[in-house]
TrEMBL record:
Gene name per UniProt: soxC
Names of required cofactors: Mo-molybdopterin
Domain named Oxidoreductase molybdopterin-binding: residues: 105-268
Enzyme Commission no: 1.8.2.1
InterPro entries: Ig_E-set, MoCF_OxRdtse_dimer, Mopterin_OxRdtase_euk, OxRdtase_Mopterin-bd_dom, OxRdtase_Mopterin-bd_sf, Sulfite_DH_SoxC, TAT_signal
Species of the source: Ruegeria haliotis
Entry-linked SUPFAM superfamilies: E set domains, Oxidoreductase molybdopterin-binding domain
Identification of the protein by name: Sulfite dehydrogenase
Top-level taxonomy: Bacteria, Pseudomonadati, Pseudomonadota, Alphaproteobacteria, Rhodobacterales
Limits of the Moybdenum cofactor oxidoreductase dimerisation domain: 291-390
Pfam families per the UniProt record, alphabetical: Mo-co_dimer, Oxidored_molyb
Keywords: Metal-binding, Molybdenum, Oxidoreductase
One function term, GO molecular function aspect: sulfite dehydrogenase activity
The keyword Metal-binding is assigned to this record: yes
Domain of life: Bacteria
Amino acid sequence: MLKTTGFVGRRDFLKAGATFLTASSAALPATLTAKGASAAPKIPDNMLYPGVEDEAYGSPSPHEAGNVRKIFPQNEKSTLTASFTPLHTQKGIITPSGLHFGAHHSGVPEIDPEMHELFIHGMTDRPLKFTASDLMRYPLSGGINFLECGGNSAPQGYYPEAQPMPLQYLHGLVSGSEWIGVPVKLLLQEAGLNPKAKWVIAEGADAGFLARSIPLQKLLDDAIIALYQNGERLRPAQGYPMRLFLPGWEGNTSIKWLRRLEVTDRPAYTREESRHYSETLADGSIEGFSMYMGVKSVITHPSAGQVLPDKGYYQVNGLAWSGFGKISRVEVSDDGGKNWVPAELEGPVLNKSLTRFTLPWRWDGSPVRLQSRAFDEWDNVQPTHEAWKSRYFEGSRNHYNAIQTWYIDAQGTVSNVF
Ligand SMILES: Nc1nc2c(c(=O)[nH]1)N[C@H]1C(S)=C(S)[C@@H](COP(=O)(O)O)O[C@H]1N2
Ligand SMILES: [Mo]
């Protein structure tokens, strides 16, 4: 077991058991050392009277009112709004629907589900149209997947200096949900595909006519017209009554409020794929149709915006994901990437899904550089910040997936550094 750093391997942790905890108990918060637990607990007031009635649609405890998204509002130059998921509070691979990140180029349209129709037309044997209730009659399928904006973590790629931002602003344009809907393949088969068809133009019913060209193959593979998110109908901001959902692909291609799938033999080069979501490489050439979201991870605790109250024992944990498939392993370092220790993958490790990782760690109180790097089942690995920068032209910001470094100073303040 590598012991140059403060990480405690899972096996060592279990073997040492109580010894480890006692040895470090000086650094444990009072609640963990169970001081005064020998006396029976006092009966609190809330046990003396029955509580209040439940609500028809449940809501979080008022004591958790601070657990909200941060909104980047529309301004005089742009109708884009973005809302950032509080990743630092999320424990688990599913983001509560009310905390799912949002990216809306022209606001959230108000749509009556009875009036909204999806048209499938173009190079098909017959055109088709569906309301959401028509789609409900098909067999539904889907899975637990992440959704990430191509512009997530943009400040890291864009600015020459690391910005003093919390985790939520730096990386909060990714979330996890269970998405359920109709496989697009079923609908395309029913429409009958012209053998020369290669692309499908997907268009949303918002004021910006947001549209993307999608290779037909993806739609025949694992794409769905999502109707449900986390067990209930989509929220308006997530595309109610129906959205395209493309597991693992750039968030922008999962067209919300989907109204049209036009089957063609060539891409349309829409605004979103020529201007907004194409990348300029270091040599000045343009990389278009960069659909897959790369392998990525971030330590969510400790993370920028947090302060470690004291030296001693902490459970380092975070989230990893890859648009190509399953996460195979995550390694962590507390010496700026000289030594790497394997973290434990916790809970289900699913295809194109957020995946939890964790490792016990003892902080000795000296300044450290804490990092994680994820690998996926295809052996893709996260690049360093420098390697990422050298691939792209100055000022690029999309598809940033480099290793995140959190600097913890002697006071325990965690901040973003390169
Ligand atoms: N019609 C339409 N679809 C859209 C968008 C939009 O503004 N309009 N935003 C896109 C972008 S940039 C992203 S990252 C995802 C965000 O989905 P979410 O808001 O459900 O998180 O939806 C995509 N689909
Ligand atoms: Mo996006």
